[in-house]
Amino acid sequence: xxxxxxxxxxxxxxxxxxxxxxxxxxxxxxxxxxxxxxxxxxxxxxxxxxxxxxxxxxxxxxxxxxxxxxxxxxxxxxxxxxxxxxxxxxxxxxxxxxxxxxxxxxxxxxxxxxxxxxxxxxxxxxxxxxxxxxxxxxxxxxxxxxxxxxxxxxxxxxxxxxx
Length: 163
What we know:
Blueprint: H1 4-14, E1 20-23, H2 30-35, E2 43-52, E3 58-64, H3 71-78, E4 83-85, H4 88-95, E5 115-120, E6 129-131, E7 138-142, H5 144-154, E8 158-161
Parallel strand pairs: 2-6, 3-5, 5-8
Antiparallel strand pairs: 1-7, 2-3, 2-4, 6-7
């Protein structure tokens, strides 16, 4: 499957995940999503692709779109070396995504399950989280439980932290 969305929908359907799809112009940032009024459908998510100081561990951090991530606090909760933003090259190497497309659904491209997924505790139990289907011209609305199921099915480590 060359279309990144098709791969996402194949997995969502295989896992019998209920979802709502909204197609829209490319949204590269939270501000872009706000301008499109996408949050009328649920809780939009902000996604950060980070690495530890040595570049040995990679983390995909998912939090509510309106929160600010305190990297020092996340680092402390994960027990890792200093966190920083990973390069676009690393983003593509591990998740086959480009800048502005970061999404927790990118882990389906992480065949070695080497990226650790960090979920904000405030997302637990939410019924509609908005994430890109590996393409920023659409948003898929799924429950937290469904997102966790997809990540677990892929074999990635999940950390639930307080952001």
